[in-house]
Structures are given as structure tokens and as C-alpha cells.
Design brief:
599 residues, Farnesyl Diphosphate Synthase, 2 domains, 59% helix, globular
């Protein structure tokens, strides 16, 4: 049995070079000869006739197939990215064609427009395109809207995935440059969204062009449903998201004060708690609970939107997971005096510290009640086991947060990588463990899975927290809106520990001084502190080392998943690794990304 300490020590001290995952980022050339593009497309069409379309594509499998195609054609690696797009198109073509037009989204880029003569304005959803005939955008849009498509002219916007998850559309037909498509590969493949994309012929982002006939062909695709469907977690993602929408949330967990007068302070307090529970977030934890339950029931939800259902007791257990997560966020924001959460001012900034503390406590109680009151439907033993696991996770999370706070308030700021990883294993991993265990236990006995769930969650949770720390240095438009916030909050991050271990003595003392004196800084002082710490982090190669540690923890999680049965549960664990540990670009040296909004 590998202990937490052994995993942490091994990860902290094995800094041997790790080969980065393969990426198509370097291969973004669209063949400029139409005959070559047609050859690739035809070869891909023939190749995909032998592909098992019941299994989702992965970046690795797509790349391997694309490499095989370009070898057969005698083409160079520069065509790899284009060929990967052609492969995903052919993989999804029948499934896109079977989806009604009114359930499809047409996604168009800004850069097809006539930049000098375009009369369109921008709104919150992108370009408010006029049907003026000055460029292809209007032509494509007219055709798509005539058929019933929803159309969005907004390149790379994060609203696309939200539209999909919300249940408004079931497929995407798009036009984009290879650079954007390369970045979208992981999200689209992971989500299992049927999609077809026509690459722009250049990536100069201004008055570019596209194979118009390919676009019109993809818009007009329409055939009966294929015999074979690809597994997708989209239905469960939508089910998880729907738990927190009105009126489902209040149906499942009725607010007891809802009938009271609006002036009633009890009703006001309850409304604050329910509003925060319903606000923002990816719902990844309740999704994990629902998906684990589904996987051990044969995974019917991954094959169809119909023919499966979740009981209210299962739904409430998933809601409980989110209530604990939201409660921890409220309390964390108070303890760190964070200014923003989900793009809004934090609760303690809006309603005061006392009220915010109480809202967090209320959400904790609400979470336990979501499970305890369903003990008859779930079975007393099942409810007791889930409540015990939730309580255990709650204690571990509090221990990790307590260790962080004690370090923050201590005069001595020394920190080792092992210290930081121990805090991560307590702060972040228990939430994943509780979510997975709850779903498994809802489906039946969980004894044989308990250890692998704990070990898997520890590795995923630690890697997730490291990625979250790195995200703090590239900004976080979906969450706190403050870059470099960990420095200003004096948090004991792994990045700080790696810097302290890797810097020369004088630089180390400077870093400790900044961390010890910059807590709560604002304005120019805050900006200068963050900029200097960024410089020191690059001097110690912190981001490269942290990235390698993420790869190590990811590999450990995948190795654990390899041994899990049944297949449906093993595939879910792989999916969790891919979706939770989604990497972004590493912070770049010399790039100022600090933004602080109102304290």
C-alpha cells in the first residue's frame, strides 16, 4: 500500500524530464492547393469506414489515425492538424446529419467579414451580423437560419460550451482557423459533442477565406439517425446542470421559508443561500456522482438521452455534494478575503462576514439533510455510509484549510513541496473522493472500490490544485477575476514551495519578504509584488516543474484506473482525469496579466 507521504515524497523529488504530451499546435498549415485538401478529405472518408464509432475519439487516437492517413498520402507533418479536423468531421458526420436543424448551432468567425466595410456591431454574443452580402458570414447565416439553426458569430467564445450543456443544441457546425480548432479539440472531444468544422484557409484573422462549398454542404447535412451512436457524457452533464436550475432545485430541495413575507429576515437569509448554490461553477462534483452511479448501472445515460432516469433521492445526493463545495467556497473567501467569486463580489463583501459565515454553515446543514431525509428511499445503511464519507471529507478539508491558515498567519514562512502537497491532499482530494464514493454507494456496495477511489481521488485532487495554482498566474475570468491572488493572500502553494527550493539564497529571502509583507496589498504595491514574484518564479523554473508534477500525478491516476472494472466505471475514471486535469497554456515570462478589481 502506497501512503500519502510516499506519493508526495516521490512526486516532490523526482524532477527528471518528462516528455510533454503530443500536441498538434505546431502543425497548423492548411494545404493551399484545393486538390490536396480534396485528397485528404477523400482518404479520411475511406479510412473512417473502418473506425468503431461507438467509442469516443481522443486527441491521441485522432492524431494516430491522422498520421496514418498522411503517411499513406505521402504528405508531410505540416498537414497533421488539418487532417485531424477532417477525421473528427468524418467521425461525427452521420450523427450531426441526424440531428434536427433546429437543434444545431452554426458557429462563425469574425474574420470572414469585410473588415473595412462591415456595418455590423458587437453585442454580448459576438457579431450582430447584417445580411448585407458584403461577405460570406451573411450568406452562411442566411442559409443556416432558413433551415432553423441557431447562429453565433463569435470566435472561441466560452459561451458555446455553456449553450451545449444547457441543452439548447445537440450539435455544432462551425468555421474556424486551425489555431482555434486545435485549442478546441480537447473540450469538444471530451464533451462528446457531434460537430463538423471547416478550417479557414489562413490564420491571419482578417478578411480570410474558406471552402464555401464545404461550408454549405455541412450546413445542409440531413440523414436518418445512424445505427451506431458514440458514447457521451453530455446527457449527464446536462442532468447535473439542471439540478441547480429553477424550478428543479426548489422542487428537489424546497426552501422552507419561501412562503414567508419578503421582509422576513429568515426568508432573505434562505434566498441568499439558494442563490449562491445555484450560481456559477462547472457542476463537476455532482456530475461525478451521477456519472459514477450511472456507470455501475450499465451506463445507459452515455448512449441515449432517453430510456434512463435518476430518482429524486439520487439527485438530492448529488446536490449535497455541491452544497458542501459551495459552503467551502464561502468560508474560503472569508478566510482569504477574496473579492470575487463567479464574476460577482463575494458574499462577505456583499452581505458582511457574519452573514456569509452563517450562509456557509446553512449550506453544510442543507447538504447533510439532502441525504439523511432520504434514508428510507436509499436504505439506512447506504445513507449512513454516504453521510460518514461526507463527514470524513468535511473533516479532512477543514484540516487542510486549517494548516493553510496557520501557515499564512505564522511568522516563519518556510515551506517545502511535501508540506504543500500534504495540504493539497487534504484540501482538494476529499471532494472528489466523496463525489465518486457517493455515486458508487448509491448504485450498490462500495467496499471493493473504496481504496481505489481514495487513491485515485488523491492523485487527481493534487494535480487539479497544482493546475489551479498555475491558473492564478494567467487570470481567471470565470471565477475571481484577480491574477496573482495567491501572492496577495499569502497562500502556501506548491509554486511557492518549488521557488523556495530552487532559488539562490538571496532570491529566496527576497521572496519570503514579499510573501510576508504583501498580504492584502492593493494598487501599485500589489501590482509590483505580483510582478516581482512572477520574475522569481520564472528564475526558479517553477511553472515547468509544476507542469511535470501534474503529469506524474495524472499518470498515477490513470494507472489506478487501468485496473478498475467494470469497463463503464474505468472509462469514467479516464474521463475524469481528462476533464478535471485539462491543461492550459503555461504562464509566459514578461507578460503582464495582473488585474485587480475593487477591494
Amino acid at each position: 500500500m502506497t501512503t500519502v507521504a510516499e506519493i508526495e515524497i516521490e512526486a516532490a523529488h523526482e524532477h527528471a524530464p518528462v516528455a510533454p504530451p503530443k500536441s498538434s499546435a505546431a502543425f497548423k498549415e492548411v494545404p493551399q492547393d484545393r486538390a490536396v485538401r480534396d485528397r485528404i478529405r477523400a482518404a479520411v472518408e475511406a479510412f473512417c469506414k473502418t473506425v468503431d464509432k461507438s467509442k469516443p475519439l481522443t486527441r491521441e487516437s485522432t492524431r494516430e489515425m491522422a498520421e496514418s492517413v498522411i503517411r499513406q498520402l505521402g504528405l508531410g507533418e505540416s498537414c497533421l492538424g488539418f487532417t485531424m479536423v477532417m477525421l473528427t468531421n468524418e467521425f461525427w458526420r452521420e450523427q450531426v446529419a441526424a440531428i434536427p436543424f433546429h437543434r444545431r448551432l452554426m458557429l462563425l468567425p469574425h474574420c470572414l467579414k469585410n473588415a473595412e466595410g462591415c456595418p455590423a456591431d458587437y453585442d454580448e454574443f459576438g457579431l450582430d451580423c447584417k445580411k448585407c452580402g458584403a461577405c460570406e458570414v451573411g450568406d452562411f447565416r442566411t442559409k443556416a437560419e432558413e433551415l432553423g439553426y441557431k447562429v453565433l458569430v463569435s470566435e472561441g467564445t466560452p459561451i458555446v460550451l455553456k449553450i451545449i450543456v444547457s441543452g439548447h443544441v445537440d450539435a455544432i457546425v462551425g468555421v474556424a482557423c486551425l489555431n482555434v480548432l486545435e485549442k478546441a479539440f480537447d473540450k469538444v472531444l471530451l464533451a462528446g459533442i457531434p460537430c463538423i468544422a471547416t478550417p479557414l484557409l489562413s490564420s491571419n484573422c482578417k478578411n480570410t477565406s474558406v471552402d464555401n462549398d464545404w461550408v454549405f454542404e455541412s450546413i445542409g447535412l440531413h440523414t436518418p439517425p445512424p445505427d451506431q451512436k458514440t458514447k457521451t457524457y453530455m446527457h449527464l452533464m446536462r442532468a447535473s446542470n439542471a439540478l441547480f436550475e429553477s424550478p428543479e432545485l426548489t422542487r428537489l430541495v424546497p426552501p422552507p421559508r419561501a412562503a414567508s413575507p419578503e421582509s422576513d429576515p429568515l426568508r432573505k437569509h434562505e434566498a441568499i443561500a439558494y442563490d449562491f448554490l445555484a450560481r456559477g461553477g462547472k457542476r463537476s462534483r455532482p456530475f461525478i456522482t451521477l456519472a459514477a452511479y450511472d456507470a455501475l448501472k450499465g451506463a445507459p445515460a452515455t448512449l441515449s438521452a432517453d430510456g434512463w432516469e435518476l430518482s429524486d433521492a439520487v439527485k438530492r445526493a448529488a446536490i449535497a455534494i455541491e452544497t458542501f463545495h459551495k459552503a467551502s467556497l464561502v468560508h474560503d473567501d472569508i478566510e482569504d478575503d477574496d473579492a470575487y467569486r463567479y464574476g460577482h463580489e463575494t458574499l462577505h463583501r456583499t452581505h458582511g462576514i457574519g452573514t456569509a459565515i452563517n450562509v456557509g454553515d446553512y449550506l453544510i446543514g442543507l447538504g447533510y439533510r439532502c441525504v439523511s431525509r432520504d434514508r428510507k428511499a436509499l436504505g439506512a445503511d447506504t445513507a449512513a455510509d454516504i453521510l460518514d464519507k461526507l463527514a470524513d471529507a468535511h473533516i479532512k478539508l477543514s484540516e487542510g484549510q486549517g494548516a493553510e491558515l496557520l501557515w499564512r498567519d505564522a511568522r516563519e514562512k518556510a515551506l517545502t513541496t511535501i508540506d504543500a502537497l500534504k495540504i493539497y491532499a487534504l484540501k482538494t482530494s476529499p471532494a472528489f473522493e466523496a463525489a465518486l464514493y457517493t455515486g458508487v454507494r448509491l448504485a450498490g456496495e462500495a467496499d471493493k472500490y473504496e481504496k481505489v477511489i481514495a487513491d485515485f481521488s488523491r492523485n487527481v485532487g493534487v494535480a487539479f490544485q497544482i493546475l489551479n495554482d498555475m491558473k492564478d498566474w494567467t487570470g481567471d475570468a470565470d471565477n475571481k477575476l484577480v491574477s496573482g491572488q495567491d501572492v496577495l493572500a499569502a497562500r502556501p502553494t506548491l509554486l511557492l514551495a518549488l521557488a523556495l527550493e530552487g532559488l539562490k539564497p538571496a532570491q529566496r529571502e527576497e521572496l519570503l519578504h514579499i510573501i510576508g509583507t504583501s498580504r492584502g496589498a492593493v494598487g501599485t504595491a500589489a501590482e509590483e509584488a505580483v510582478a516581482r514574484v512572477r520574475h522569481l518564479y520564472f528564475a526558479a523554473k517553477v511553472f515547468e516543474k509544476a507542469d511535470k508534477l501534474v503529469d506524474k500525478f495524472r499518470a498515477k491516476a490513470e494507472a489506478l484506473a487501468d485496473e478498475v472494472e467494470p469497463t463503464e466505471f474505468r472509462e469514467l475514471l479516464y474521463y475524469i482525469v481528462d476533464s478535471v486535469l485539462e491543461k492550459a497554456e503555461l504562464p509566459r515570462q514578461g507578460v503582464t496579466q495582473f488585474v485587480q478589481l475593487g477591494r
